[in-house]
Amino acid sequence: MKGSLKYIALLILGIVLISISYFTFRYESLILSTQYVGLFALHLFLAYRRKDFSLKEIIAFGILLRALLLILSPNLSEDVYRFLWDGKLWWEGIDAYAFMPSELIKAKALNPELFSKLNSPDYYSIYPPINQFLFLIAGVFENVNAGIITIRVFVILAEFGVLILLPKVLIQYQKDPKLLIYYAFNPLVLLELTGNLHFEVFVIFFLMLAIYEFDRGNRTKSALATGLAISFKLVPMILLASFFKKLSLRRYLTFSTVAVLIAIISFIPFMFSDAVKGILNSTSLYFQNFEFNASIYYLIRKIGYGVKGYNIIATAGPLMGVLSFSAMVLFNISAPSKMKLPERMMWTYLIYFFFATTVHPWYVLPILVLGILSEYKFPVLWSFTIFFTYWGYSVSGYQEYLGIVAVEYISLGAFIVFELIQRTKNNKGLYA
């Protein structure tokens, strides 16, 4: 009976996963949240019973759960439609970086039906060239669903890479490779990566590869992998600071140079487009206009309203960036040299997000994997609480509930403190 219980739990998890993905709308907050609680409870139960699984079973079932979402049209995010929009522009001979969708639709340059699904028609594309290459491949199909499935195939391949590589890295750090289950069956991972097609999956894969090769002594391969992670999302560039005390100054400079050069090479196509203007414009707007699920910034914004009488994001946003950068550098300089690389990366990421003005649920998934490698549980908790930021969507728009945000960050902060105290008591300090 004990052996069959895991299969029953997996079957129910699969059924609920299909229900929440294919049959639930984002604005159905109560139904969405209830199903997510059920998914997460099943995930924790299976993680608790991970000794009942072989590692091959965890990997196989992880792939199967992702395969269930193969033909899904994302129900929680419209980002994939911008991916396809950009891809189709390239096929039309139009520079996807040069025009906002709203400019092109006025000229009737592309499909109005696809345009109607975009969530950012008045912003220039900000996706790096390596992402655009995948968009280009998906854009060859006239049918939107075929394009979505094409992108999902690439995402599932990257997911497969993580499922294979993460246990190897866990073994390198003398951890139980079956801790993979916290990633393989995690509902946020399933919904946001395979389901909603966010490219953090490529960041996670290349970061795992970078850590794996670094600890095997293959510094050049590690730097190449780090550079590829940066190529998909610029944010991982902050993690270069995490290597500082792991190498001599000369080797650190060489490592960072190789990683940055790889990223620069991937951005070479920008030289042949109008990308710079659009990206600078959109990046500026990101730091000075966008705000979602922030922590420290929301406190500063509240003070700003009291002192200035208006939203001070235009000045506070860039200031938060400066403070974040300073805090990350200070942490990596002052942290003990014996602190393991995944843990250094985890805290560096965490500092970045605490100062960020926008923290979408899928942003935190690299922290989940780094937490698994460091045996911290707070990223697992965060992967649960952050999902409830979806509460507030309606048919006509979105209204953020700051009470939910407060509960999310208070519970996260409290659990971080709890774990640090426990580690201190166990004489582990800040490193596992």
Word description of this protein:
This protein has 432 residues and is mostly helical. It has 20 helices and no strands. Helix 8 packs parallel to helix 11. Keywords: Membrane, Transmembrane, Transmembrane helix. One of its GO terms (molecular function) is hexosyltransferase activity.
Summary, kept brief:
Keywords: Membrane, Transmembrane, Transmembrane helix. The chain is mainly alpha-helical.
How many DSSP-defined strands? 0
Number of helices: 20
Helix-strand sequence: HHHHHHHHHHHHHHHHHHHH
* Oligomer description: single chain
- Shape summary: globular
The chain-level structural class is: mainly alpha
Segments where pLDDT lies below 50 for 5+ residues? none
Strand fraction equals under 5%
Mean pLDDT over all positions: 92
User: How many domains?
Assistant: 1
- Intertermini distance: 36 Å
Can you give the helix content as a percent range? 55-70%
User: Largest beta sheet, briefly?
Assistant: none
Kindly provide the radius of gyration, computed on alpha-carbon positions and rounded to a whole number of angstroms: 21 Å
Question: Layout of SSEs?
Answer:
Elements: H1 2-22, H2 29-48, H3 55-67, H4 79-91, H5 101-106, H6 112-115, H7 129-138, H8 144-172, H9 181-184, H10 187-195, H11 200-215, H12 219-232, H13 249-266, H14 275-289, H15 296-308, H16 313-334, H17 341-355, H18 365-374, H19 378-385, H20 402-425
